[in-house]
Design brief:
two-stranded parallel ribbon, mainly alpha, 5 helices
Length: 176
């Protein structure tokens, strides 16, 4: 799956915020002495994100959009090359160059915006499904392990990543 830097940055930002909230909640619960009755687990957030069906669908949709936009750019380049080989007037060549430059800039911005928008949609939906999972399965604290300091290590018996992936994809399928 293609993952772009700005998608990763947005993903990491949201994962960090979610983990901070969960960590603070865990500390509050622990400080109140109710730790023994809590079910605690963790998930590998990057794996859940990557294997979530909505991620895969929106990534494919974004790829299709990017390919269509790239085809437009390639056609403009071919048109410009044809004009150059015909020795078209300079003002015509300048017009096509400006259009090509404008389209490249526009498409780059649009791709980045659409990617960020999709990432936000995915995390919004995933966060709801994760909350549903916790309620359904009686999980008090669900931490995310993403290698950024939120959860650097834990007993693998507490890793519910695969179970959560199955749950969120089933919820997503039922939503469609």
């Amino acid at each position: 799956m293609k993952v772009h830097n700005h998608v990763k940055a947005s993903q990491m930002r949201w994962a960090g915020i979610l983990m901070l909230i969960l960590l603070l909640g865990g500390l509050i619960g622990w400080s109140l002495g109710s730790r023994q009755s809590n079910k605690v687990a963790y998930i590998q957030t990057a794996k859940v994100f990557a294997e979530f069906q909505m991620t895969q669908e929106l990534d494919a949709k974004l790829d299709n959009t990017r390919q269509a936009r790239q085809t437009i750019i390639e056609n403009l380049n071919l048109r410009m090359q044809a004009m150059q080989s015909r020795r078209a007037p300079l003002d015509s060549l300048d017009a096509i160059r400006r259009e090509l430059s404008h389209r490249q800039d526009q498409f780059s911005e649009d791709n980045a915006f659409q990617s960020e928008q999709y990432t936000d949609q995915i995390w919004t939906q995933l966060n709801q499904y994760l909350q549903d999972y916790c309620e359904t399965e009686g999980v008090t604290y669900l931490f995310g392990a993403n290698g950024t300091g939120n959860l650097m290590g834990a007993d693998q018996s507490y890793d519910l990543t695969d179970e959560v992936i199955a749950f969120v994809n089933q919820k997503y399928q039922n939503k469609l």
